[in-house]
Design brief:
- This protein is mainly α and 293 residues long.
- It is built from 14 helices and three strands.
- The protein has a three-stranded antiparallel beta sheet, with helices on both faces.
- Helix 6 (149-164) packs antiparallel against helix 7 (169-182) and helix 9 runs parallel beside helix 11 (238-250).
- The chain starts with a helix and ends with a helix.
Length: 293
Amino acid sequence: AIARRADLGSELRADFVVYPQVRSADGGLDLSLVETASGVVLATHRVELEGYTVDGGKTPLGAIIARRICDAVTVRVQAHQPGSASRALYTLYLAARRRLQLLDLRQVRRARIDLRQIVSAAPEFAPAWSLLAHATTQEWSLLGRLETEALRTAERHAMRAIEIDPSDPQAHRELGRTSRFLRGIDESLTHFSTAQALAPNDADLTADHADTRCHASDLGEARRLLDHALRLNPIAPDEYRWTDGALRFFQDDYSGALAQFQAMRDPEPAARLAAAAAAMAGERDIAAQFRNT
């Protein structure tokens, strides 16, 4: 059974695979985390479903499961780090990744500072260069700047990651993000296609690709990609909802777009488009609230 699981993980290009099994006796859920390369069962978790909800409620089931699995993966990855200094840097890297899930300028800047420290101490760690590129681009986007020097800096960081690891999908993703503003949508889509081929089941990458397809007015493909991202990560971060709202807006679904913006934990970065969606949906009071955000 373990060999079959490892084969399936290889087909999915996944480092780890989670296998759920519902217990017939009490309706609970057993989860097994398997490492693809070795076929080893790294952890098992028993989840009692009573009292949990799938989405919403006080205790979302998806968040509980995701937290337990992520903790087990982190322990496994840290175990392969050669020393305490490397483990500390990797912990700092994980913290930076969590900060960048929030569309909050202070958190993004803190993540960028931490990542600069990491690449200074571990200059051959490609994922940190990719994430530093992401943080730099994210800060530029949240500030709404017109100058492009920050994007060129992010591009250099991404290129450094590719020099270290040409198969790093996140580095190609960041080149897609920067080139969209620096050189045009066609080059951006080329980078995103490369990144998507390297990591077809990366939810954040797929959602970013959907956003770029939306900018390219390829709304059908943008919807397909975003729906795939939401299947991979049903606990949608704000960036997913922002993209979903923009996509619905351009499809003339103004009420649906407004609902997505209102569901964001922090809708301020999308306030202008949210105000436009509210106005087009006939919600003048809500439009005024977003304009004054």
